[in-house]
UniProtKB/TrEMBL annotation:
Species assigned in the record: Alistipes hominis
Every RNA polymerase sigma factor 70 region 4 type domain range: 129-180
Keyword set includes Transit peptide: no
Record PANTHER family: RNA POLYMERASE ECF-TYPE SIGMA FACTO (PTHR43133), RNA POLYMERASE SIGMA FACTOR HI_1459-RELATED (PTHR43133:SF8)
UniProt keyword terms in alphabetical order: DNA-binding, Sigma factor, Transcription, Transcription regulation
Gene3D superfamilies found in the cross-reference section: 1.10.1740.10, Winged helix-like DNA-binding domain superfamily/Winged helix DNA-binding domain
Domain named RNA polymerase sigma-70 region: residues: 32-98
Protein name: RNA polymerase sigma factor
SUPFAM superfamilies in alphabetical order: Sigma2 domain of RNA polymerase sigma factors (SSF88946), Sigma3 and sigma4 domains of RNA polymerase sigma factors (SSF88659)
Length: 190
């Protein structure tokens, strides 16, 4: 006797968002939110620097976002919820007039690979190769590099602005930096 096995797959974020908009079911938001609790807790702990405050912020975010979520145009839920958590924590810090914690900004670490090329004595002569090499990059790399280094956008901001996945943005920036460095070195060796 043959029994068909049925595999029920967990709906992805986009599917849950679609269901939420169509039906307004709170359970869809609950499922989405619960997937990202570890991320939210990490973000809140990073900014608030106390476990109890981070836990309270995660709960407050749930209560705050649940009735509002249907009004937002969300392309990538992970990016959106990360930004919502970060903004919530920054508002909490401003309300209590606590200092926003200084963190080593990834932008400074990321930009070291490009800016060191411009800090050398022949920086002026390297400016033109940088511009030319930037134009030679594949479009996603070029866009990501421009947003990140010249407009000082975060990975999450770039992902939200372009609709690309966060991991793709990180990859575009890393590959773009490597390709820029190779191109600039080739052009300045001539």
């Amino acid at each position: 006797m043959f029994f068909a096995q049925t595999h029920t797959r967990e709906p992805d974020d986009d599917e849950l968002l679609r269901r939420l908009r169509q039906t307004g079911q709170d359970s869809c938001f609950g499922t989405l939110y619960s997937r990202y609790i570890p991320l939210l807790y990490g973000v809140c702990l990073k900014y608030l620097q106390r476990q109890d405050l981070a836990e309270d912020a995660v709960m407050a975010l749930f209560e705050e976002l649940q009735p509002k979520i249907a009004r937002y145009e969300i392309r990538e839920f992970r990016t959106w919820i990360y930004s919502a958590a970060k903004n919530h924590c920054l508002q909490q810090l401003r309300k209590t007039k606590r200092e926003i914690p200084h963190e080593p900004d990834a932008r400074f670490m990321e930009s070291a690979g490009i800016t060191h090329l411009l800090d050398e004595p022949e920086a002026v002569s390297r400016n033109e190769p940088l511009k030319a090499c930037l134009e030679e990059l594949p479009e996603p790399q070029r866009i990501s590099i421009r947003h990140f280094f010249f407009e000082e956008m975060s990975y999450a901001d770039i992902a939200e602005a372009t609709g690309w996945h966060l991991k793709s943005v990180k990859s575009y920036i890393q590959n773009g930096k490597r390709n820029l460095k190779i191109c600039i070195e080739k052009r300045t060796e001539r």
